[in-house]
Design a protein that fits this description.
The chain has 125 residues and is mostly beta strands. It has two helices and eight strands. The protein has helices at 88-94, 104-110, and strands at 7-12, 16-19, 30-37, 42-45, 50-53, 59-62, 69-71, 78-85. The strands form two sheets. Strands 1-8-3-6 form a four-stranded antiparallel β-sheet, with no helix packed on it.
Length: 125
């Protein structure tokens, strides 16, 4: 399986009603890739009272278990979404503990920065 995600779903030309992903892990992010042609879809996050442009080529990472989300009707064109996700049941079945919640320091370390802890300067001699 060439993916870190345990599930993949393809959604074609469908409205996605407001929901939370019941089988998902609250500490993991789902990857949603919006594809298609000439559509003007909007990705809504009800809990945040936010609407995001969801045009073709958009990628969204969202904690689908935690945040209520939806995609309503779009104006024209073809809409395709590839949804990548992880299920808690898969982790439980194979005996892998659920990963912890990501933190700001985790992301800062990924981009080569430290969190609020200062690095010691190395003196050149």
């Amino acid at each position: 399986w060439p993916s870190i995600f345990s599930g993949l779903e393809i959604i074609a030309n469908r409205v996605t009603f407001s929901h939370r992903d019941s089988g998902g892990s609250p500490s993991l992010f789902d990857l949603l890739v919006s594809l298609g042609r000439n559509h003007c879809a909007t990705f809504a996050l009800a809990d945040l009272q936010a609407e995001l442009d969801y045009s073709p080529g958009t990628m969204v990472y969202v904690s689908g278990r935690v945040l209520e989300h939806s995609v309503g009707p779009w104006l024209n064109g073809e809409r395709l979404v590839i949804a990548h996700f992880m299920k808690d049941a898969v982790h439980e079945r194979v005996g892998v503990p659920r990963p912890g919640f990501p933190t700001q320091s985790f992301f800062l370390e990924l981009v080569g920065r430290k969190s609020k802890v200062r690095r010691q300067k190395k003196c050149r001699r």
